[in-house]
TrEMBL record, chains A, B:
Its EC number is 5.4.99.12. Substrate binds at Y111. It comes from the Bacteria. Homodimer. This is tRNA pseudouridine synthase A. HAMAP family: TruA.
Amino acid sequence: MQRYKAIVAYDGSSFSGYQIQPKGRTVQGEIEQVLRKLHKGQPVGVTASGRTDSGVHARGQVIHFDSTLNLSGQQWIKALNSLLPDDISFSKVEVAAPGFHARFDAVGKEYRYFIYTNPVRDPFRRHYAAHVRGAVDVEAMKRAAVCLVGTHDFTSFCSAKTETENRVRTLSRLNIEEQGGELVLTFAGNGFLYNMVRIITGTLLDVGRGKMDISSIPGVLAAKDRTVAGKTAPAEGLYLWEVFYE
Amino acid sequence: MQRYKAIVAYDGSSFSGYQIQPKGRTVQGEIEQVLRKLHKGQPVGVTASGRTDSGVHARGQVIHFDSTLNLSGQQWIKALNSLLPDDISFSKVEVAAPGFHARFDAVGKEYRYFIYTNPVRDPFRRHYAAHVRGAVDVEAMKRAAVCLVGTHDFTSFCSAKTETENRVRTLSRLNIEEQGGELVLTFAGNGFLYNMVRIITGTLLDVGRGKMDISSIPGVLAAKDRTVAGKTAPAEGLYLWEVFYE
């Protein structure tokens, strides 16, 4: 029995999220079904670095699983990708240390959020970026973002349903840049609360559209109250980009 | 009654092609249904510069239609796009000369074909570019492309089902360039036969993969026989990019 670590990309558009559930098509469900086929009907469970919601994408989700099959990385990729539907693709499979855990061993993550601001909606971006009509003050968003970088209690910026008691996280980087006519927000940190990236994005967009003043951001953080932050930005703009390990 | 000229973009992935048909979802069908709603149930026919097949995309399809509604370009765009499904989008609507015809008045078209050559398939490109595994000799493809530019009988490069008798067309440009890690083939000409762009692309890919020699291209043209050219490249890589008028 060997533990494997793998990197998976998926287009979240047609999934009811990453995590397996009784109803609905899920990324985990598709992967476990294929692994079962490769193991002659024996169930093989996979553990991811974390879930992603319905419609959220991944470029570099990391999972681990145990297997008695002795395949090389290239053989695993070929076997898995030839059986998986074309909206999931493995790009790397390697032998991991026996105790490696995709979730508990992760020391950080990078998410990216894509926004396009064309006056007219673009049919090719409908599943892959959020559409914001009208001008956005990018410089104001950048200045507001600076207030959020660092170690803070992010209670105001996570779903009210969050059960985690400790909402202190370190946001080590929040870059905003224009790239190919779109706005790309890059978030890096040691951990992210439920909906944190999407609520921060929604709040920064409020600043960019003049609905919220930059000076009120520190107060939003201090309030520790979800209702004072902006709306949760839509799922389609969000990508789990990379997961970091020691 | 006024004639309007409009530019439409659509993601062809979920359509059974542009042209209306008894069964299946079509671009024309969706547009005519929305125009009918805007005209209180009166049918309004639209005429396009030409059809596109199932899975083929358009950035700049051009259509015309007649209407008694007196709306500005911006009003038309707003009215149409708010009722249309999100895989179709109008980017321009303007009053045309009374006799303007989207198909007969077109003097040329530009198509683009996107190819990616990553060893592993990319879930985000599955509907938007053709996937070719392994190395491709781009310089060889460029040299082969030169043999096809100009005025030729393109019988070898159109579907055997083509009913048009005169298969002489002028391909004024066939550029091949690498762009964002993908290969982009740009075709411009005064007219294109059925499947012509996809068969030329399939043939150039045979050259790029060493399955066909550059020196045989003139012979393929001269043969006027579909069976001597390469396979028809898949629909998902093809975009009707622009339609030209006087």
